[in-house]
Design brief:
Blueprint lengths: L1 E6 L3 H17 L4 E6 L2 H9 L6 E5 L9 H11 L6 E6 L5 H4 L6 E4 L4 H15 L5 E6 L2 E6 L3 E7 L2 E6 L4 E5 L2 H9 L4 E5 L2 E4 L3 E4 L3 E4 L2 E6 L5 H16 L1
Parallel strand pairs: 1-2, 1-3, 3-4, 4-5
Antiparallel strand pairs: 6-7, 8-9, 8-12, 9-10, 11-12, 13-14, 14-15
């Protein structure tokens, strides 16, 4: 579960940022809670009650009679001694770099906010927090086994069994639903659900054709089902674009 606070006195921007975050977390299959605040005082008051946030999107400019986002950040770091929460500043202005130094923000976004840059910040946070690194778990009988996500090249569904293909050429067979493991464990990582029988790891894709995918260390390409072609290409290029940011 990732807990997020949005603090911005521009209601439309706060609402749009919340909508985008909901879409991103949904796409990554990440559980979340989002709370929206319209002033720095409101956010600080909530944190003084013991509220915890993993990620804060914090506007810099508020009304003249209110504390600004930089002061809020310093209160979080100094008064609350909270050095764990990741702060992402948002502003219409670019000239704040030196003032933000001691707050050590995760990133700084310029308004109007861009979807791809918001997604990049979320991915960056999750990688730092360890949410996007981990292990794939599966059961054989009453026993539970684990394999590093990064070592999976693809997963195949065959005759009610799932076959886990590992980068070193190894294979593991177990019973399960390919749709369930994608939704519950792999969707949040950069995997492509190309066919009802195949899920592939983007990191091992060497070429994406109209109706097939080529993987490293795999001579035979894997088919992309007709009804998934558009979705697979869209996700593939979205991952490529995000990684290039």
């Amino acid at each position: 579960m990732i807990t997020v606070a949005i603090c911005d006195d521009e209601i439309k921007i706060g609402a749009e940022l919340e909508r985008v975050l909901i879409e991103i977390f949904g796409k990554l299959n990440i559980k979340y809670e989002i709370e929206v605040f319209f002033s720095g005082e409101e956010l600080c008051a909530k944190m003084e009650t013991g509220a915890h946030y993993d990620l804060i999107f914090l506007d810099i400019e508020f009304a003249k009679d209110e504390i600004n986002g930089i002061e809020v950040g310093r209160l979080i770091r100094d008064a609350h001694q909270n050095f764990m929460v990741s702060i992402v500043y948002i502003s219409w202005e670019k000239n704040y770099a030196l003032q933000l130094f001691d707050v050590q923000p995760l990133n700084f976004l310029i308004k109007p906010l861009d979807y791809a840059k918001i997604e990049d910040v979320v991915i960056k946070y999750m990688k730092i927090a360890g949410v996007l690194t981990g292990e794939f778990t599966y059961k054989k009988g009453h026993d539970t086994f684990k394999v590093q996500i990064k070592d999976i090249t693809y997963i195949e569904s065959y005759d009610r069994k799932l076959i886990l293909h590992i980068v070193d050429g190894g294979e593991e067979e177990f019973y399960g639903s390919i749709k369930e493991i994608y939704q519950e464990q792999l969707k949040k990582f950069d995997f492509l659900f190309i066919h009802n029988s195949y899920i592939v790891n983007y990191d091992y894709v060497t070429a994406l054709k109209f109706d097939k995918v080529f993987l490293a260390n795999n001579v035979t390409p894997l088919p992309i089902s007709k009804h998934r072609r558009s979705e697979v290409r869209e996700r593939y290029y979205a991952i490529m674009k995000r990684r290039m940011v």
